[in-house]
Amino acid sequence: MFEVVRTMSIASRKLGTLGLAALALGSAFQVAANPAQAPLVLGMAYVEPPHKPGAKVRTPEGLAPVLAERLAKSVPLKPTTVSKKDIVSGQGQAVSSADLHLLPLNAEEAAKVPGTVIPTGYRAGIMAIMRTDTDIRQWEDLRGRTVCLAEGSGLAGQIHAQYGAVEKVLRAPADALLDLRIGGCDAAVHDSTMLEALLQFPEWKKFSARLPVLDERELSFVVPHQAEQYAELLRRHIEEWQQQALLPKLTAQAARDIAFEVYMDQEVPDCH
Questions:
Q1: Is the CATH number 3.40.190.10 carried by domain 3-123+219-263?
Q2: For the segment 134-149, what is each residue's pLDDT rounded down to a tens digit?
Q3: 125-215 belongs to which CATH class?
Q4: Which of 149, 165, 225, 271 is deepest in the core (most CB within 10 A)?
Q5: Where in the chain is the domain with CATH 3.40.190.10?
Q6: Rounded CA gap, 21 and 69, in Å?
Q7: Which residues contact 143 (CB under 8 A, 6 or more apart)?
Q8: What is the pTM (predicted TM-score) of this model?
């Protein structure tokens, strides 16, 4: 019945090719930095909380946490939450306290950040999906309707402020999408690139109504001026990732994993 059942063995392992690329990147970093030094501080808009024993494994929103986790297996990293607004404006301790940043930026933001911007090639905006029999046709129709979001999306407060929606913020994409399937919300708003991949599965056909993508940004490394020695290394390895089509593969893997997580947790039928 569910396509994701046939991908259980795939969803249980990570892409080895990305691991190899990350190992290469780690080796390059060790040449540029003393490995005995403290871990490189990586500023991110959202840092995944540590996994608690017994808790459900959840795929995060977008690729930033995935790339950070993979990179951390090769080079010591200390992810820390930073305000993207502070980074873009060049204000606050966040700018000088991190060796690198990994943030989604639009063209205007990328032009303002104090440092070197190195795009990863991963672009995504925000997209809403709904049941195909919905009466929601535009973003403005979300006023007064319940919208499910994931903590890592960074959208909490935004959909309510712009469109008057009632926000329901859940732990991860799978939790929000499960709530959509069982009727707990009228729409789910997430990373558009991941959602496009998710909607390729036949079991999501009934939930394939969508609103236009908004606020497209490119996931980018930002190298502060005081850490320019890392810029060329990142460029070289991002180019390798792009040549190997690793980011599309990761996106497809994330969609499979999320679909499987929803399938495993869905203990009540889809609402009809």
A1: yes
A2: 999 999 999 999 999 9
A3: alpha beta
A4: 149
A5: 3-123+219-263, 125-215
A6: 13
A7: 163, 164, 165
A8: 0.82
